[in-house]
TrEMBL record:
The active site is at D95, K158, K188. The keyword Ribosomal protein does not apply. Belongs to the DeoC/FbaB aldolase family. DeoC type 1 subfamily. It catalyses: 2-deoxy-D-ribose 5-phosphate = D-glyceraldehyde 3-phosphate + acetaldehyde. Pfam families: DeoC. Keywords: Cytoplasm, Lyase, Schiff base. Pathway: Carbohydrate degradation; 2-deoxy-D-ribose 1-phosphate degradation; D-glyceraldehyde 3-phosphate and acetaldehyde from 2-deoxy-alpha-D-ribose 1-phosphate: step 2/2. It comes from Pseudokineococcus basanitobsidens. It is found in: Cytoplasm. Its EC number is 4.1.2.4. This is Deoxyribose-phosphate aldolase. The gene is deoC. Catalyzes a reversible aldol reaction between acetaldehyde and D-glyceraldehyde 3-phosphate to generate 2-deoxy-D-ribose 5-phosphate. One of its GO terms (molecular function) is deoxyribose-phosphate aldolase activity.
Length: 224
C-alpha cells in the first residue's frame, strides 16, 4: 500500500479513530483540549482514563475509557466495578486489559472468566474491547487470547495498551487477530501508530479501529 490512491481516505481513517489520552500526568485542561481537537478532526471517539469522566462538550463523539489499565493485574471484581462505574459516568465503550501473564501461561479459562466478569458488568450496548498486549505474546497465545475474548462476549480485540515495553501494534499481530476472529469481532490496532502510512498498513492488515494519540499527524498525511 504505497501509492496514495491505494490508501484509505481521510474520512475513512477518521471514522475508525479513538483519539486517545491516557498519560497519567494528563490534566483536566488536557482532556478538554483532546475533546475539542477530536471534534475538529471529525474522528469517531475519544479514549480517556476513567478518572477523567464524565466528559463535557463531546457532541457526537463516542466516549471510551479503560479498565484494569495498564497492567491487567487487577482482580476481575475490581475490573468489573471499574467498568460499571465508568459506564455510569458516561462511557459508551470500555477497553479492558487481560491478565497477560495468564495468557502467556495458557490459562484460557482464567482469561475467559476475567473478560466475562467485565462483560456481565457492562452488557450491550456498551462496547467491550479486550486488550491482549500482543507484543508480549507468541502467536499461539495471541490466538488463544482472541478466542477467549470472543467466548466471553467481547466486541473487539485490541493489540496493546501502548505502555508495555514489548511494544505496540504490528501488522503481523493485527493480521493474526483478524484471521482468528474472522470478522465476528472487530480488531483495534493501538500503540505506536504515528503516521498515515502506519495507519493505512494496520487497516490493510484487518484493523477496524485505530487507537491514536497522534491523530492530527496521521490524518494530515492521509489523502482528502
Amino acid at each position: 500500500m504505497t501509492a496514495t490512491s491505494e490508501r484509505p481516505r481521510r474520512a475513512e481513517i477518521a471514522a475508525l479513530v479513538d483519539h486517545t489520552l491516557l498519560k497519567p500526568e494528563a490534566t483536566a485542561d488536557d482532556v478538554a483540549a483532546l475533546v475539542a481537537e477530536a471534534r475538529d478532526l471529525g474522528v469517531l471517539a475519544v479514549c480517556v482514563s476513567p478518572s477523567a469522566l464524565p466528559l463535557r462538550d463531546t457532541g457526537d463523539l463516542v466516549v471510551a475509557t479503560v479498565c484494569g489499565f495498564p497492567s491487567g493485574k487487577h482482580t476481575s471484581e475490581v475490573k468489573a466495578a471499574e467498568a460499571a462505574r465508568a459506564v455510569r459516568d458516561g462511557a459508551d465503550e470500555v477497553d479492558m486489559v487481560i491478565d497477560v501473564g495468564a495468557a502467556r501461561a495458557g490459562a484460557w479459562e482464567a482469561v475467559r472468566a476475567d473478560v466475562a466478569a467485565v462483560r456481565e458488568a457492562v452488557p450491550s450496548p456498551t462496547v467491550l474491547k479486550v486488550i491482549i498486549e500482543a507484543a508480549a505474546l507468541d502467536d499461539d497465545a495471541v490466538v488463544g487470547a482472541c478466542r477467549a475474548a470472543e467466548a466471553a462476549g467481547a466486541d473487539l480485540v485490541k493489540t496493546s495498551t501502548g505502555f508495555h515495553p514489548s511494544g505496540g501494534a504490528t501488522e503481523h499481530a493485527v493480521r493474526l487477530m483478524a484471521e482468528t476472529v474472522g470478522g465476528r469481532l472487530g480488531v483495534k490496532a493501538s500503540g505506536g501508530i504515528r503516521t498515515a502510512e502506519q495507519a493505512a498498513a494496520m487497516v490493510a492488515a484487518g484493523a477496524t479501529r485505530l487507537g491514536l494519540s497522534s491523530s492530527a499527524a496521521v490524518l494530515d498525511g492521509t489523502p482528502a
